[in-house]
Amino acid sequence: MRYIIIGAGGIGGTIGARLHQSGHDVVLSARGSHLAALRSTGLRFVTPNGSETLRIPAVGGPADLELREGDVLVVATKTQDTAAALSAWAPHADGLPVVCAQNAVENERLALRLFADVYGMLVWMPALHLEPGTIVAYGTPASGMLPVGRYPQGVDKLSETIAADLDRSGFASWADPAIMRWKYGKLLGNLGNAVEALVGPDPAGLDLARRAREEGLAALAAAGVEVTTPEEERARRGRLVEHGEIEGVPRPGGSSWQSLAKGSGTIEADYLNGEIVLLGRLHGVATPVNAMLQREANHAAHASRPPGSSSVGELTALI
């Protein structure tokens, strides 16, 4: 079985690196300067245990390799890039399974329009990708927690095989028949990503994140969506994945923070806070905090504003 990692950023790069280190056949798909660095010097993979340069095959897209039976596509792009990525790969990948190793809950629906066998994966992994050719993974002793299951529900032999491969490759993983329940639980935690990106580490932002989560709980309850609880999540994660310190490379922020820091021009708020706004509109639940965060995060990304360029007071006044 060969793992094709579509989107070799912080998440995809870490998954690919760990699978490669444990002897699995891996191909990384990337773009631009990151792809050029992967091809020229390899992937510099930094963890709390040190740094290693890995020579993993890298491609720019499906035209650069011949897909074959037994390949597994692992999509690890940001959700706003999923539709374009899937559209590029689908004509070349008929019959192949797709694993959505991403935040948000829209990716699996997008994949199921084009692929018959779709799997969801919860991603609990502190990682950083700001420099071409370099991935920093802070998780320790495991690099991340990555349960996987069929979408919309169930497990099968492939999900069990993928989970076993990941579990033997430095991750905590298992095949879970209700994987979307975990992903909706993670979605609630990700509602604060826009707060961190917009105001930085200001502790006053915690109240905005709390209010966004409360709206999320209300919208999900109205929609009849079952989610994991923080207590259940903490109990399952335990001390399997903790944030390890890496000298000289502090982790400045999460995925949305990194989008603003890189000046990518896009941010995933439409599929995090925007998911709650959508459910609120469908089921008659007011979501003013999430609507504001979605709007302001998009404004910041489109204007190439750096992370931390807003204040909690400014955002609160906009609700």
What does this molecule look like?
With 319 residues, the chain is an alpha/beta fold. It is built from 13 helices and 13 strands. The chain has helices at residues 10-21, 32-40, 82-89, 107-112, 157-167, 179-190, 193-199, 205-223, 230-237, 255-261, 273-283, 288-302, 312-317, and strands at 2-6, 25-29, 43-47, 50-54, 58-59, 71-75, 98-101, 118-121, 127-128, 134-137, 139-141, 148-150, 241-243. The chain has a 7-stranded mixed beta sheet, sandwiched between helices. A 4-stranded mixed beta sheet has the order 4-3-10-9. The N and C termini lie far apart (50 Å). The mean pLDDT is 97.
Task: Please write out the topology.
Layout: E1 2-6, H1 10-21, E2 25-29, H2 32-40, E3 43-47, E4 50-54, E5 58-59, E6 71-75, H3 82-89, E7 98-101, H4 107-112, E8 118-121, E9 127-128, E10 134-137, E11 139-141, E12 148-150, H5 157-167, H6 179-190, H7 193-199, H8 205-223, H9 230-237, E13 241-243, H10 255-261, H11 273-283, H12 288-302, H13 312-317
Helix pairs in contact: 7-8, 7-10, 7-12, 8-11, 11-12
